[in-house]
């Protein structure tokens, strides 16, 4: 047993720490150099990775200075990517559902993992009932919270939580976090008491799940995986094979009685699109697992992923990327050649390349 508790500097999220460090560090002092002066500094490599993540979400510029977005994120009591998600929700006018999802992700999964093996399947079925056919763990969090709110107003909150394997205490904390986060948005001027940007205005699209997912994508980037339809596996920028975490509703395909031998491959094959966002990637025995996933469309990825300002060479004509890993193979068909010649390549980052119709 440790004689002393691990310093908070080594326990708190480094991305949030790096943002606030920029507010405290002297001008022109790199974050790594400032943090290394602490009695128990975090590893320099992990700090650099956190800084790179902040740059990828436009919270910092290439010189480690805070952007306007970065300054706003320092005011929000959640991790930077969740803060960006919430701010995008304000812009897209779908704040309420994103507030719920962000607070649930910031705290912990409200679902309780049963200890009895016989109850684990029942718990997974409860999760799946909240998906509404959306292939989304985020929808599960949202609908579970909304159903819990209704049960609480109807006076059967405790029975509802027991029936659906939910933690009543976790739900109460999420309510408090929502209130705190909304209060900060009001204090910062993003949500106003009346007129434009009032609470009704910033929720004009809250019932539109496609718009809600757009805000999720903007916040979750670069946490993105792609479906390889040939090998039926998920791939990420630094991972050739990624699996769904067992608690994800996407981890198993919809089957009635007997699960298939290769459940993961069947689950991947059943996905309606080739792109997914996720909240967290963990590793166990050399296998990367992703938690809290949602399928997203390519057009959503193209519009809401990548840096705020793309470089001038981000969009390339078909002739300029011959031989690229995503280019089409040569064909003897005149029709296929004509189709390929009308395709351009959109490079959002070093890994995320999308084919686009040149006429769009």
UniProtKB/TrEMBL annotation:
Residues 316-341 are annotated as: Disordered. The keyword Mitochondrion does not apply. SMART domains: HA2. It comes from the Eukaryota. It holds the Pfam family OB_NTP_bind. Keywords: ATP-binding, Helicase, Hydrolase, Nucleotide-binding. Residues 49-142 form the Helicase-associated domain. The keyword Hydrolase applies. One of its GO terms (molecular function) is helicase activity. This is YTDC2 helicase. It comes from Leiothrix lutea (Red-billed leiothrix). The lineage of its organism: Eukaryota, Metazoa, Chordata, Craniata, Vertebrata.
